[in-house]
């Protein structure tokens, strides 16, 4: 059983960047943390963009699909912050060093994104299209608000 | 307002691979779909691996952290399937062409992972450590079970 557990876990974490030290996060190197947050942002952008396409009429609005996208965005919004570890301003990243100089403000902005995404996921379950658009806009503003300050052009 | 909406969405989907056609998925190219599913698997592996480290005693067990990881895994398990679009067996991928030859079996396996991950997220909220370990093992088996058949060594 113990050997099976080990084998199954090894397959599940194949390709992951897990270390086995008792740190708050488990990144071995800054590049792993950068990859983690970029993966999360990429998935977030894809799911959010699909919602935007529906709201802008670039594809048919599908309430069920919109709801799933909103749930994905709410879940994904929780992930990137863990990847902004100390020292990960160096490497293949658009993140400005300013993030770490103003970490508490950056963290607050990321948490605002999480809150607004959670509210959007709730709004997506209602039939109130106006409220849904407002919740979408509120979430979208987080991206620009944060990128303007903390991301390279 | 319309211009603001456009600007905010554009920032939110910066770097995404969104097309604006009315397809079921929004990938412009097979490589975008490959990148999408690999990003999801990578985040999944990281979060799942951390749970494994806690269960194996490689780091202290933290019920709250374990619960968050389980929620992440449950959410992330829903994402990769969308990236297995037709033609995306070609490229930088470990996915075998067999996936598309036996797509309904592959889809069923991915949905089993989603179900087991959802059950794990529920188990993670209880104090029953034995049930939690069993739910973890059940989820872990999906990785090996699917990789053995559908992934290059």
TrEMBL record, chains A, B:
Q: How is it modified after translation?
A: Binds 1 heme group per subunit.
Q: Which residues bind heme c?
A: 143, 146-147
GO CC annotation terms, alphabetical: periplasmic space
> Which residue spans traverse the membrane?
none
Which InterPro entries does the entry link to? Cyt_c/b562 (IPR010980), Cyt_c_II (IPR002321), Cyt_c_prime (IPR012127)
Q: Which residues form the signal peptide?
A: 1-24
Q: In its UniProt record, which GO terms are filed under biological process?
A: electron transport chain
SUPFAM superfamilies noted in UniProt: Cytochromes
Output the Gene Ontology terms for molecular function.
electron transfer activity; heme binding; iron ion binding
Matching entries from Pfam families are given as:
Cytochrom_C_2
Keywords tagged on the record: Electron transport, Heme, Iron, Metal-binding, Signal, Transport
- State the name under which the record lists this protein: Cytochrome c
